[in-house]
């Protein structure tokens, strides 16, 4: 079995200003792939980085960091967003999503758009990952 091909890794400060930078960096990593789900990947990265800034310990710490890892295998993208985690919350899809709400749709979008997704704890914090199959 062929291993994941690492396309790149991005390390950013856990600040709201890092959200557009995360999109730009991931777009740059995906430019050469011609993956049909690039726009979906950028949307989901935006949502996950925003969640990291708002809800993780990385976002609560002035020196907090977020790492994004982008890989590909047989046409499927695999992206991890890694942050400091949180002792007070876990990634949970809101059961009632309203389109006119100001928030609460990030993990719902992830669930609806990604081929697969999940999260795991690391020594450094928490990783939320998703996969997007080439259609």
UniProtKB/TrEMBL annotation:
All residue ranges annotated as the Histidine kinase/HSP90-like ATPase domain in the record: 12-131
CDD domains: HATPase_RsbW-like (cd16936)
Xref: SUPFAM superfamilies: ATPase domain of HSP90 chaperone/DNA topoisomerase II/histidine kinase (SSF55874)
Classification via Pfam families: HATPase_c_2 (PF13581)
One example GO MF annotation: protein serine/threonine kinase activity
Signal peptide positions (record): none
InterPro entries named in the record: Anti-sigma-factor_SerPK (IPR050267), HATPase_C_sf (IPR036890), HATPase_dom (IPR003594)
UniProt KW keywords: Kinase, Serine/threonine-protein kinase, Transferase
PANTHER family tied to this protein: ANTI-SIGMA-F FACTOR RSBW, ANTI-SIGMA-F FACTOR RSBW-RELATED
Protein name in UniProt: Histidine kinase/HSP90-like ATPase domain-containing protein
């Amino acid at each position: 079995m062929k291993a994941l091909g690492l396309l790149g890794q991005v390390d950013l400060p856990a600040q709201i200003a890092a959200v557009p930078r995360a999109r730009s960096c991931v777009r740059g990593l995906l430019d050469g792939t011609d993956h049909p789900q690039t726009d979906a990947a950028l949307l989901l990265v935006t949502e996950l980085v925003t969640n990291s800034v708002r809800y993780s310990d990385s976002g609560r710490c002035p020196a907090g960091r977020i790492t994004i890892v982008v890989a590909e295998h047989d046409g499927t993208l695999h992206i991890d967003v890694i942050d400091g985690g949180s002792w007070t919350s876990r990634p949970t899809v809101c059961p009632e999503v309203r389109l006119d709400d100001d928030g609460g749709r990030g993990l719902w979008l992830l669930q609806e758009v990604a081929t697969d997704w999940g999260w795991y704890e690391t020594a450094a914090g928490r990783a939320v990952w998703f996969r997007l199959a080439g259609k």
